[in-house]
Task: structure prediction
Amino acid sequence: MDPVRNPFAPGAGSQPPELAGRDDLRSTISIALQRTRLGRPTKSILMVGLRGVGKTVLLDRMLEDAEAKGIHTMRVEAPESRSLPAILAPQIRQALLRLSRNEQAKDYAQRALRGLAGFAKALKVKYQDIEVGLDFEPEPGLADNGDLEHDLQALLEVAGEAARKAQTALVMFVDELQYVEEDELAALITALHRAAQRRLPVMLVGAGLPQLRGRMGRAKSYAERLFDFPEIGPLDPPAARSAIAKPVEAEGARVNEDALERIILETHGYPYFLQEWGKHAWDTASQSPITLHDVEQASASAIAALDESFFRVRFDRLTPSEKRYLRAMAELGPGPHRSGDIAEQLKQKVTALGPTRNQLISKGMIWSPNHGDTAFTVPLFDEFMRRIIPGDDWKH
Ligand SMILES: Nc1ncnc2c1ncn2[C@@H]1O[C@H](COP(=O)(O)OP(=O)(O)OP(=O)(O)O)[C@@H](O)[C@H]1O
Ligand SMILES: [Mg+2]
Result:
């Protein structure tokens, strides 16, 4: 069918034509944001899930929902190499400048901007990557101790007061939160905890890989009580069905029932894969309806496209020993696997493989659902590894 009209959108962070199966969570977040704005007790929310399940697009959609309700938002993505204060500071500044245009909040927002100036100046020693425009002179003693835990807390407090005056809330949407260093996470948790105790309208909506939950707990033992950790997973069959059928129908075409079932079977309901299969099934079909035969043909090109993009970007970041480790895991199937079993595949000691395993965890390729267990963070990565490194030469 006409590729120009193909509605599907495979790609990291690409908004899907139909955001299927996430309405409940969207409304949960929307309620939480409105409660926080009223000063009612609310937990910050951290969405956790594997690669490609739709965390980023969900976060963006929630941000739009929030903005539509007049909530002040900040959007950041934690990169692997920059510090949390460096990525937050410019966003806090933008939010405060917007708040300073509100008559009721103006003085408070300006005070918070002084706080930000002190914050940036004092922390620049430790976090040289902080770069932020300064609109006011610092107020001595306000958020300028040079200690992130203290200063972030003080800064979010004054910012939260400004938001309260403007009868809005200040909500940070942070993606890839698992990359934030543990001491920086600890500072963020403390600051949010303090704001919550004071019923200030400040909240975090975060997203990250499943290891995030454990990292938060290690950073601050009370973190697990302070946050909700909804799991973002593959779509259930009815949602997966509408992810494919609705966009097709919106273009005036149809998909046969058995074709839909096959797509769900092949993708296991994983959102990224659904977009890829939808796209290729559409392009393969010569006319509506899309048939089972079209899907069967499209599968090969969908897999090839995933191998070249979704899987490849991950694979290319690996060292040879990391590749071998993952290949050994793949030999054992989808997982999770015991460290001992992986080591046995490689005929090495578990302790000798420790550093490789740790690097893979910090790159976000694997995680540990339970002590001694190792699982892929990328769905169907085991199948990919067996495709890209076939045979058993890797054993030697
Ligand atoms: N609810 C959904 N229904 C249909 N398609 C979706 C849904 N959520 C996400 N997608 C599609 O899945 C793909 C991946 O989405 P996204 O980049 O948000 O995933 P992610 O969890 O952030 O992945 P990563 O961990 O790699 O950053 C995109 O092509 C997006 O359009
Ligand atoms: Mg993402």
